[in-house]
Amino acid sequence: MSQSVLSLKNVTIVQGGRTILSNVNLEVKQGEFIYIIGKTGTGKSSFMKTLYADLPLSEGEGNIMDFDLVTLKEDDIPFLRRKIGFVFQDFQLLPDRNVKDNLHFVLKATGWTDETEIQNKIDEVLEKVGVKEYANKMPHQLSGGEQQRVAIARALLNNPEIILADEPTGNLDPQTSVEVLEVLKKINAAGKTVIMATHDYALLMKFPSKTLKCEDSSLFEVVQKTV
C-alpha cells in the first residue's frame, strides 16, 4: 500500500489576511497524479504555495514529506524544498546563463560540491525530459515548450518525491501543452507524485486523473465529466 506524502486536516489557507480556502481535508499517496482546477482567484496558487511553505499554515494540521507545515521553522524550509520539485507557469530560468549553468546553479545552491556528480545529474535530468542537446543554449534561444522542459528538469535535480506544477502549460499552445503533460505523466509513471494546478480542461479530458476543484473557499474532488 502506497505511503502518504501529503496529509491536510481541517486546514484553513490564508493570504493577505483573507481566508482563501477553509476546512481542507486531503490525503495524497505516493505515486498519485492530481489536478487542481478552479477559476482564477479561487485558491489554486495559494494552495500550492502553502505546500511549498511560501505561505505559512496557521490553522489545521498539515504534513508533507514528514515535515509539519504548522510547526515548520524558517531554517527547515530549504530542506523541505529539496524534497519537492516546483514547476512554474513562467519557467523562471535565469536569462544570463545557459541551460546547463541554470541547473548547475541550483545544485550548488542546494549543497552539491562534486563537479563530476553535478555534471552527471544535469545530463541525467535533461535526458529524462528530452532536451539534453540544448544544454549549451541560452533560455531565449529555446521555445516555450523547451524552456518548460528545462524547468521540469530543474525540478527533478534533487530527486524529489513530489512535483508541484502551478499552471505549467499556461503560457503554451495546445500541442506544446500536451507534450509537456506527457513529460509530467512519464515522471509520474516512474513513481513520482505530481500535483498540477491548471485551467486547461482539454488536458484533463486527454489525460484523465484524480481532480480536485477550488470553489467557494472549498477544495473538493470532482468527477471529470462535470468539471
Automatic annotation (TrEMBL):
GO terms for molecular function: ATP binding; ATP hydrolysis activity; transmembrane transporter activity. SMART domains: AAA. Coiled coil: none annotated. It comes from the Bacteria. Keywords: ATP-binding, Nucleotide-binding, Transport. Part of the ABC transporter FtsEX involved in cellular division. Important for assembly or stability of the septal ring. Belongs to the ABC transporter superfamily. This is Cell division ATP-binding protein FtsE. It comes from Flavobacterium nackdongense.
